[in-house]
């Protein structure tokens, strides 16, 4: 029995965590410390905080990989959820490993906006598009993250003549199209943007750089 207990402990999953970007939510975990156990399989369950019964995630039942997509299962974004994982190897099952409580609306990371840049001789027009969630309207189009949060766009300009690392905030607000004027012809400028969530005081990562020479 003791050997069995040791084996159970050695394959028990570690660090069970939710990762979420724009409500695309996955559960991740690390293997137990039995490194030689090659063919370990994992089982995933989830529940809403306060519910007594755990639900099996069928697609993640007896899987070799260490990630499980729970986007659909966590679609009620104001609810707090738990996930848990157990492992099996050589006919032995570990105990369950529990995640921390996860509330999508509070904890999902917001991705950066899509940025398109059009230039004329002394100005740059920047077109911004908020990231999409995985959830769809009845007609099938994906719902943008602006439906769930009061989001602001933050637009930064980089004058490559001066310093490639120096970003200057030139706009913060909700407009999807902005114009940056009085720029110098012949100079290379780059634009990057972020989404900002005032209520949570949180920002997305920067978008990829869109560069242009006037």
Automatic annotation (TrEMBL):
Superkingdom of origin: Eukaryota
Transmembrane annotation, as ranges: none
GO CC, any one term: extracellular region
Lineage summary: Eukaryota, Metazoa, Chordata, Craniata, Vertebrata
PROSITE patterns per record: FN3 (PS50853)
Fibronectin type-III domain ranges (all copies): 12-107
Record flagged with keyword Cytoplasm: no
A Pfam family that the UniProt record links to this protein: Interfer-bind
Function in brief: Receptor for IL22. Binds to IL22, prevents interaction with the functional IL-22R complex and blocks the activity of IL22 (in vitro). May play an important role as an IL22 antagonist in the regulation of inflammatory responses.
Subcellular location: Secreted
GO molecular function: cytokine receptor activity
Primary subcellular site in the record, as a coarse category: secreted
Record keywords: Disulfide bond, Receptor, Repeat, Secreted, Signal
Keyword presence, RNA-binding: no
Similarity comment: family membership: Belongs to the type II cytokine receptor family.
Protein name per its UniProtKB record: Interleukin-22 receptor subunit alpha-2
């Amino acid at each position: 029995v003791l050997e069995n207990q040791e084996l159970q402990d050695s394959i028990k999953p570690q660090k069970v965590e939710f990762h979420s970007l724009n409500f695309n939510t996955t559960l991740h975990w690390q293997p137990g410390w039995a490194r030689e156990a090659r063919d370990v399989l994992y089982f995933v369950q989830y529940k809403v905080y306060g519910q007594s019964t755990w639900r099996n995630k069928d697609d993640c039942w007896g899987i070799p990989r260490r990630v499980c997509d729970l986007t659909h299962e966590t679609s009620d974004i104001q609810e707090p959820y738990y996930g848990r994982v157990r492992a099996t190897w050589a006919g032995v099952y570990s105990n369950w490993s529990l995640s921390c409580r996860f509330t999508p609306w509070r904890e999902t990371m917001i991705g950066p906006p899509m940025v398109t840049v059009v230039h004329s001789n002394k100005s740059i027009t920047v077109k911004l598009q908020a990231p999409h969630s995985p959830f769809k309207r009845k007609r099938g189009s994906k719902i943008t993250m602006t439906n769930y949060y009061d989001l602001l766009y933050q637009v930064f300009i980089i004058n490559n003549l001066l310093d490639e690392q120096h970003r200057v905030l030139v706009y913060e607000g909700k407009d999807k199209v902005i114009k940056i004027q009085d720029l110098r012809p012949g100079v290379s400028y780059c634009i990057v943007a972020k989404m900002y969530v005032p209520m949570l005081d949180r920002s997305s990562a920067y978008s990829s750089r869109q560069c242009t020479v006037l």
